[in-house]
C-alpha cells in the first residue's frame, strides 16, 4: 500500500508544491525585504509552537505499535534540547521578530491542523505528511537563501540546517506510520489537500502584504 499512499499524497500536492510559490521563489532569489522576513518569522513561530502538542495528541490517540513509535520519535526530535522552537527563536531573534498574534491565514492554518486531527489518526498523519514530504527541500532552500542573500548569522541558520537533514526521515516515518494503519485513501487525499491549501494560503497572505 505504501506506493499507493505516496501516489495519493503526491497527486494531492501536485499544484501546491511550496517551493513553487512566488514567496519562496523571491526568498531564493534574495528579493524579500528584511521586514518580510521579520513578519514571516513572527507568524511561522505559531506553527512551530503548535507542533509538539499536535504530535503528542496524535501519539495519545494511537495504539501501541509502529505508528505510535514513529510519531513519538518525531516528537522527541521536536522537543529534545535545543528544541526546534528554541532553534527557530534564534532565527526569529536575528531578524527582530516580536511576539505577535496569529494573522488570519496563520490562524486558518492552525485550524486546519486541528481539523485533520479531529478526524482521526489517519487524517492527522496525512496532514502531517503534506508538509513533511516537502520539508527537507524547503528548509534547504530557505537556509541557502538566508546565507547567500540575507546576511544571516550562523545561529539563525541552525533551525533550517537541522530540518534540511531530518525532515526526510520524518516524512518517511510518517508515511510508514500511515501505511501501518491501512487508512482510507480518500481520507488521506482530503487531509493532505486541506493542509496543502492552508499553507498555500499563508504564503499568499505574505505576498498580499508585500504588495
Q: Can you lay out the helices and strands and say which pair or pack?
A:
Elements lengths: L1 H11 L9 H8 L4 H27 L5 H14 L4 H11 L9 H15 L2 H29 L4 H28 L3 H26 L1
Helix pairs in contact: 1-9, 2-7, 3-4, 3-5, 3-6, 4-8, 5-8, 6-7, 6-9, 7-8, 7-9
What would you say about this model in short?
Helix content is 80%, strand content 0%. The chain contains 9 helices and no strands.
Q: What is the number of helical segments per DSSP (H or I, 4+ residues)? A: 9
Question: Which residue ranges are poorly predicted, with pLDDT under 50 across at least 5 consecutive positions?
Answer: none
Question: What percent of residues adopt helix (DSSP H or I)?
Answer: over 70%
Strand content: under 5%
Structural class determined from secondary elements: mainly alpha
| Global Rg | 16 Å
Shape: globular
Termini gap: 44 Å
Report the sheet with the most strands, covering strand number, pairing sense and barrel closure: none
**What's the quaternary structure here?**
single chain
Mean pLDDT: 97
Extended strand count:
0
Question: What key attributes describe this structure?
Answer:
single chain; 211 residues; mainly alpha; 9 helices; 0% strand
How does this structure look, described?
- The protein is an all-alpha fold.
- The protein is 80% helix and 0% strand.
- The chain has nine helices and no strands.
- The protein has helices spanning 2-12, 22-29, 34-60, 66-79, 84-94, 104-118, 121-149, 154-181, 185-210.
- Helix 3 (34-60) runs antiparallel to helix 5 and helix 6 (104-118) runs antiparallel to helix 7 (121-149).
- The longest helix is centred in the middle third of the chain and has 29 residues, at 121-149.
- It is globular, with a radius of gyration of 16 Å.
- The model has no long low-confidence stretch (mean pLDDT 97).
